[in-house]
Structures are given as structure tokens and as C-alpha cells.
Amino acid sequence: MFQVSKSTGRLIEAMSKNREYATSSDGELFNALNQDYYEKFASVYGNEETEALNRAFLGAFSVIDKDYDGGWVGGSEGGASDSACIDSLFHPDIVSAGKSDSRAWSKTFVSRTLVGDPGTTYKYLGLRIFAHPWSVDDAETMEKEKLLRALLAASPPLSSPPIEHEWLEEIKASTSPFITATSPPLSTSFYYPPSTASALTSIKGANSALVSSSKQQLKKKVVGKHGITKDMLGSSKFTLTLINRMEPTAVRRDLKPDSTTSTVSGKMADSKTSVSWHTDSGLVDYSTIAIWHHHMPPENLSKKARGEVSNLWRVALRPIPSLLPSNAKIPALLVPLPANGGIYYMLDDLNHKFEHAVLAGGDGTRYSSTHRVARGGKGTYQFLLNELLAVLSCEHDFATFNAPKEKKNDETRRVKGLRRLLSLINEIEFEWIRQWRVQGEGNAKRNRYWLTKFALITSAQNFLLRIRDEMKTWLMNGCNGREGFEDYYDILIEHWESRVKSAGGWKKRLEERVYSSLPSIEQPVSWGSSEDLSTDAAEKKSKKARKWRLGYVDGSMRNEKKRERSGAEDGGGKKKSKKDKKGKKKKKDKSGGLTKKEQKGLGGNWALLKGKM
């Protein structure tokens, strides 16, 4: 797992006895660890590249991390003027590091913003955050949006979701020209004041520079080592950057002691973590992570004081404990971060084998821009558009379901299409709309790009719900007397069961105290809610669907028995009794309210399953 020569391993083992960590002051031990165990960690400081990045990032942050007063509205052509106002794009997140069934939500010590390719999101610790775009949507995305709007416009009108905040009315009015526009925006100035749009574009330029330098580091530090060829390298085509603003211990007195360095005596024992031990999640396997960082100590701090350990910001790395043999011990590596900016890289599989943390300095706010290759798929707006178009292109006219099948696989295709539709409804509700609303009014004000996207997403969701309600009515009426539709009831029951579970998790999440401690503008909001999604409401709908299924199955069985009796009478047979051999009246079979999947696993779960009906 950790490949080093035997001689180097023995040297490190001898020097690291009773050592939890190694710093640059440890000389030979630090160098040996850096060159062998931590060889895929690289850093660059004090050259033309870092100076250029300093100018680009600090110039951008002077705009996007500047607090303004009040809200802002669009200009005469849909854009926003520099005189308009927005909040800083940086803010703390409410996240949970616990398991899904026992999560405790808390506010991060770090303030963050996400910038990246249009339509990108990043989910970490239970929270999905939505990227500010550093460029406009591509032509394909715009064309698909146009097609989706056309599909929605051709459908019967739906009642608009309620608007609960005056600012939302203003912003919705300012975005309406774009939602119906035939010509798309040509720059991000449509969504942001020009100075902010320019800052986001500058970050994209810096990202391109880091893509190039990461390739050089991979060639230098990884290719040719341990049999790794150029074709085996992970990606360094960064799609987003998670930008952090971190306060020093002089400002944040509530930072927690580091679990590694605080267990030993000496100068490092008072180390506090600004970002605790973790690996970065949601990324393409073996992709590189590039981090630009900069911090500025107060001007009144002496040169000697700036160099003291207690004032330095440091990045720490250590092997993931579960990957180490039981008898192995590799000290953590603590790397000091110069105040005047620099870059460090976590190359290839380093993020798979090592955890990292950031130890806070005593003075000076630190910025870091962490460039990553995020996984695509469900986490992008483009994927959601594709799913919506695919689902809406399927046949959902229940009036035609009584017609004879034109093709052998018509029924299978319809079942798959409806299952996909109901799955998409839940995906949009709990992984998109809820994740957007839980971040509050302030988040929506800061991110007008996504506000326009959610105007379209919400309209599409309402359209999907209308299709589902038509299906629900059709099933409630027994499929107009047609038999063989048990699968449709099963799909609806599974849909509501999934909603019960998800709604319960969100109910518990929103009851956490941390949300009530936030400023009102940052607290979760519920505007535009399409339906009652309380746990009780979802459970009631699930039970109703089960009763409809039971009634449908009973009706089908009665029809079958009628046919049997009719056949028996035609053949001179006797009518079968409704009583069993002992003369007792048979109990009504309730298993018809269970899905086919539940019936297969009936066994000892019968008491539990009966409670659902």
C-alpha cells in the first residue's frame, strides 16, 4: 500500500519513535517522509506563477468577498449594474460529519464559496452547494432549456407556487426576460454586477493556469514511479474550486485542538484545526487536487513573530488509519505555509490514501482556492435537464392505456417510464429543491444564476407532479376496470415509501438548533412548496395507495371467480363455497395491499407490513 525501500523504512522507523508528527525543523526525518511516504504531495512558492495567481485571486476576492448593504435588482437589459448591491459570496455552511441515521448538524468554522463550470454542484457532508458560474452555459444546454420551456408552455397552465418574500418577487420579475428570451446571455454579467462577473472570469483563468501546472507536477512526481505511465494518470481538468476564508486563532477562539499534534508536548501542542482531518469526497478517482493559498499577517506583527510556529498556518497529512498495517506507524507531516502565497498539490492517489487537515495560524486571515475534478452525473444541471427531457418524451396519457398494445413491450416500456418519472420527482425534491431552500434567502440572493435555473426546475417539477396525480386518479378508479396493472400500484407505493423516509430525514434535520441560531436571511425557507411533504402526509398517501391496490386486486380476483363460476355452471359444475372445510367464513386476504417485492419477502415481516396498510 505504501511503497518505500526497506532501508528508508528502517530509517524513518528509527527516527520517528514516539513521534506523532514531523515538521520542517526535523530535517532528515521530514525530508525522508516527504520524499517517500508523502511523495505525491508537492508545493511551489515564490515564483512568477505564484505571484500571478496572487494577483488574480486577491483581485477577485476583493470583489466577491466584499460586504454590501441590501439587495439588488437587474439593469435595463437584464444585467446588473455596479451600483447594485449583493452580499459577499462567502458564507459558512451547515454540514454533518455523522452517519445518515445519527447526524448532528453544525456550522463550519470556515466561510466558503463555490465557483466552477456552469450547472456544477458539489455535495459534501450532507449539503449540496451550487457553483457560481465562471462562464455562460454552452449552446447545447441553452438549446435543451429552450426545448424544455416549449414542452412546459404547450401543457395546460399550472397554478404558480406561492411567493413569500418581496425580494423574490423583484428578482423573479428581473429574471423573466431571460426565462422567455430567444437570445441567451453572452456573459455572466447577466446574473451578477460586471465587477463580480469579471472576478469570476478571473478565477476561471487562474484555474486554467493550475490545470497546466498540475500536469507538470504529475509528469515530474508521478510518471515513471512505481510503474505508473502517462496513460494511467488521473484527471487534472478542474471543473470547480471550493474557495475558503479562514480566521486565525486570535479571532476564532472556538477552534478545536488537533487530535494528532495536541497529544504530545512541545510547541505544537496548542495546535487548533480550522479544517479537521478528512479526505475530499465526490471527486473523480485518482484526480489531482491543486490548492492556491495566501494569508496576510497584521502589519503591526514583527518579522520574528510572523515566523513563530504559533503564528504559522500549516497543512497536515497522515495515512488513513484503516489502510495501515496494525504494527505500522508513519508520523503525520506538518508543512508550514508561507504568508505570501503559494500552491500545493495532492497528486494521483494521495487523496485515497491520506487524510489532510489545516492547522490555524495565530494571526492573519487565510484564503485557499481548492481546485478539483468533480464527478459529473446526477450532480449537474445538465444531467437534470437530460432526465427531464427523457421523462417528458415518454407516453403518460392514461386515457390511452385501455387501448390494445401496439407492440409486445409496450407495457414494460410504460412501467419503466413511470418508475423513472416518480424517481425523478423524488430526486428533484430532496436532492435539488430542498438542498437549495435549506440554505436560505441569502443564498438565493447571492446566486442569481441558480435562481433562474430553479424557476425552470420548479415549473418542470410541478408538471411532473401533475402527471403523477393523473396516474394516482387513474389507479384510484381501478384502472378503468382493466386488469394486469398491479405494477403501477407498486411503483406508486414505493414512491411514497421513499418520500416517507426522505421527508422524515429532512424533518429531523430542520429541527436542529443550529438553523434557529442563524440570521433570519440565512435560515431555511419554504417558498414555492409544491405539496405537503410532512412525514404524516406522505404516510397517509402511502396507506391510501395500498388500499387502492388491495381493492384493485380484490376486484380482479372477484372477476376471475365470476369467470370460474360461469365456466363451472356452463359445464354443469357446482358453485364453490366461501367457507373453508370447517365451515368457518374465510378471513379477507390483505396481502393484496403489498407490492410484489414485499410479498416475496413476506415471511416473518407480516406483522410489520400489515402496519403499513
Automatic annotation (TrEMBL):
Any one GO MF annotation of this record: mRNA N6-methyladenosine dioxygenase activity
InterPro entries tied to this protein: AlkB-like_sf, FTO, FTO_C, FTO_C_sf, FTO_cat_dom
SMART domains registered for this protein in UniProt: FTO_NTD
Main location, first listed in the record: cytoplasm
Location of the protein in the cell: Cytoplasm; Nucleus speckle
Biased segments, Basic residues type: 574-589
Keyword set, alphabetical order: Cytoplasm, Dioxygenase, Iron, Metal-binding, Nucleus, Oxidoreductase
Domain of life according to the entry: Eukaryota
Catalyzed reaction equations: a 5'-end (N(7)-methyl 5'-triphosphoguanosine)-(N(6),2'-O-dimethyladenosine) in U6 snRNA + 2-oxoglutarate + O2 = a 5'-end (N(7)-methyl 5'-triphosphoguanosine)-(2'-O-methyladenosine) in U6 snRNA + formaldehyde + succinate + CO2; an N(1)-methyladenosine in tRNA + 2-oxoglutarate + O2 = an adenosine in tRNA + formaldehyde + succinate + CO2; a 5'-end (N(7)-methyl 5'-triphosphoguanosine)-(N(6),2'-O-dimethyladenosine) in mRNA + 2-oxoglutarate + O2 = a 5'-end (N(7)-methyl 5'-triphosphoguanosine)-(2'-O-methyladenosine) in mRNA + formaldehyde + succinate + CO2; an N(6)-methyladenosine in mRNA + 2-oxoglutarate + O2 = an adenosine in mRNA + formaldehyde + succinate + CO2
Domain Alpha-ketoglutarate-dependent dioxygenase FTO catalytic: 26-376
Region (Disordered): 552-613
Skewed-composition ranges (Basic and acidic residues): 557-573
One of the protein's GO biological processes: RNA repair
An annotated GO cellular component: cytoplasm
E.C. designation(s): 1.14.11.53
Keyword Transferase: no
Subunit structure: Monomer. May also exist as homodimer.
Family label: Belongs to the fto family.
Entry-linked PANTHER family: ALPHA-KETOGLUTARATE-DEPENDENT DIOXYGENASE FTO
This protein's name: Alpha-ketoglutarate-dependent dioxygenase FTO
Organism, scientific name: Triparma retinervis
